[in-house]
Design goal:
Layout: E1 12-14, E2 17-24, H1 41-52, E3 57-59, H2 88-93, H3 103-106, H4 116-132, H5 136-148, H6 150-164, H7 183-191, H8 193-219, E4 223-228, H9 237-241, E5 256-260, E6 270-271, H10 279-284, H11 288-298, E7 303-306, H12 310-313, E8 314-319, E9 327-330, H13 333-344, E10 349-351, H14 359-368, E11 372-375, E12 397-400, H15 409-415, H16 418-428, H17 434-446, E13 452-456, H18 457-460, H19 487-497
Helix pairs in contact: 5-8, 6-8, 11-13, 16-17
Length: 501
């Protein structure tokens, strides 16, 4: 499914300054005839659009298995890709499923939002069919894939354990089956070997398809900026496989959870309900689990964004769901970044250092010269020294109009006070038309010291708050945004308006 390659410019300039311009758009958001963006034509077409408009970076959200709320940051595994990304037309091209089997998904082509429930159910069904039709050549490739990815068999075992017992939580399955190497575990493995093979097959295909997307991106000189969630769900594969890496009680419950106190994203604070790390145990093992997580994330992209940077140095721990009584606890500190630097170097990382950053976090960022994030939407508090204003941002940063946790910029303008809007108009010297103000803001960002500017796709398309991706602290109704089918001309129009060449 690889298209013909052609080269795009590797270096772009804005007013004689070397710059990179990126777009934040999760794969699920891409327009597709199957109701959700995936690793098929939708990704290749999007890369064409980026290349045609001299966009250097495509930022995506985490690709891992998601929880029941379809949140990319509610990670169910650090070492797998969600099956919803499978390119189903590729299954047809490989003659593993028939075209008529795609009928249900094709009905979702014009849906305004992603229907995750239907998409996930249908893609799982199609993978079941595809697995029944694989030939010996594919079987051999799957065996080689399993041998070179030690975690994948354990992951597939975990998935089959849940499916066999109709459970979402591994703690609701028979305890004697938790250890695959135990006598009972080996019996279960042998009796479900075919089902386990089905999940290994899916991960093989996903890695293969995404590998093709990455190769095409490279040919277009587009770098992919991926994302690694800080925490995992109690029901996740990671906790099932290595519970000692997390703070759990003797019954494998997480009475303490990760979150944040009140900040600019959420005035009430957030309790994510996720497990927090047992940092003292991780340190004794030279942070190998942390390094393994990062290694897998790096295998999927060119640059890794480390979500919730603060959580690596000092994390906010919430006991019994009482955010008000939450406490800051020691994390991995400098030692974990020493380990990351030794293993990978620190060049191709971006840290999410928004919200509350502890003093220890600030020291670590400075010591290791880590590339952080700036968000223009946070700049307008009336303080001329605000670090998010274009004239104040540092060179070693990625500058955002807004992230996936923010409103679209037009939505932000509409909801802003008159005072805030006047500040922005004065800064940009724009007309009072919101779209002109948006263009003026982007130009100011491009003229800043920051070498990398990233905008949400919704801001390139000048969409209002109805196109918002996520509202922090809201469990239902997020992550469903879809890019409109006719987006290409609107995208190019904004590129022209901001004088990007």
């Amino acid at each position: 499914m690889i298209k013909m390659f052609y080269n795009a410019p590797t270096i772009c300039y804005y007013k004689n300054m070397k710059k990179e311009l990126g777009v934040l758009c999760h794969v699920t958001c891409l327009p597709s005839q199957f109701g959700i963006g995936d690793f098929g034509r939708s990704s290749f077409d999007f890369l064409d659009v980026l290349s045609e408009n001299n966009i250097n970076i495509w930022q995506i959200l985490p690709l891992n298995d998601t929880n029941v709320f379809n949140c990319p940051y509610g990670a169910m595994s650090s070492f797998s890709i969600d099956e919803m990304f499978i390119a189903v037309e590729d299954l047809v091209e490989r003659q593993l499923v028939k075209q008529k089997e795609l009928k249900t998904l094709k009905r979702l082509k014009k849906t305004a939002k992603v229907n995750f429930e239907v998409v996930k159910k249908e893609k799982s069904r199609l993978l079941d069919i595809a697995y029944l039709n694989i030939d010996e050549t594919i079987k051999e490739k799957i065996k080689r894939f399993a041998r070179s990815n030690s975690f994948i068999v354990d992951y597939a075992y975990y998935k089959v354990l849940l499916k066999t017992h109709n459970a979402r939580d591994w703690r609701k399955t028979p305890k004697e089956l938790w250890d695959r190497n135990s006598s009972k575990g080996q019996q279960f493995f042998k009796s479900t070997k075919n089902e386990i093979g089905r999940f290994i097959f899916a991960q093989y295909l996903l890695r293969d398809q995404w590998g093709n997307v990455r190769a095409y991106a490279k040919s277009k000189k587009v770098k992919i900026l991926g994302d690694l969630p800080i925490y995992l769900d109690i029901t996740s594969f990671d906790v099932f496989q290595n519970p000692h890496n997390f703070k759990l009680d003797k019954n494998f419950n997480n009475n303490v959870s990760g979150g944040v106190p009140a900040d600019e994203f959420c005035s009430d604070g957030q309790d994510w309900g996720t497990c927090v790390y047992n940092w003292s145990f991780l340190e004794k093992n030279n942070f190998q689990y942390v390094l393994n997580r990062i290694s897998f994330a790096k295998s999927l992209c060119d640059i890794v964004r480390l979500d919730h940077f603060t959580g690596y140095s000092k994390h906010f721990e919430i006991e019994n769901k009482n955010i008000a009584e939450g406490k800051w606890k020691k994390g991995g500190g400098e030692k974990v970044f020493d380990a990351i630097k030794t293993k990978f170097g620190l060049k191709n990382f971006v840290i999410e250092d928004l919200g509350i950053i502890t003093e220890e976090g600030k020291k670590i960022k400075e010591k290791f010269n880590l590339k952080g994030m700036n968000v223009l939407q946070f700049a307008f508090d009336g303080d001329k020294k605000n670090p998010y204003l274009p004239q104040n941002v540092c060179e070693n940063s990625v500058y955002y109009l807004g992230t996936h946790d923010n409103n679209t910029f037009l939505g932000f303008l509409k909801d802003s006070s008159i005072e805030t809007k006047l500040q922005i108009i004065k800064m940009t010297k724009s007309e009072k038309e919101d779209k002109d103000i948006l263009v003026g803001c982007i130009k100011k960002m491009l003229a800043s010291k920051s070498k990398t500017i990233i905008l949400q796709i919704q801001d390139f398309l000048m969409q209002d708050k109805s196109a918002r991706m996520n509202i922090p602290g809201t469990a239902v109704g997020c992550w469903e945004y879809r890019v409109p089918e006719n987006y290409k001309k609107r995208f190019a129009k904004t590129i022209k308006a901001i004088d990007w060449k």
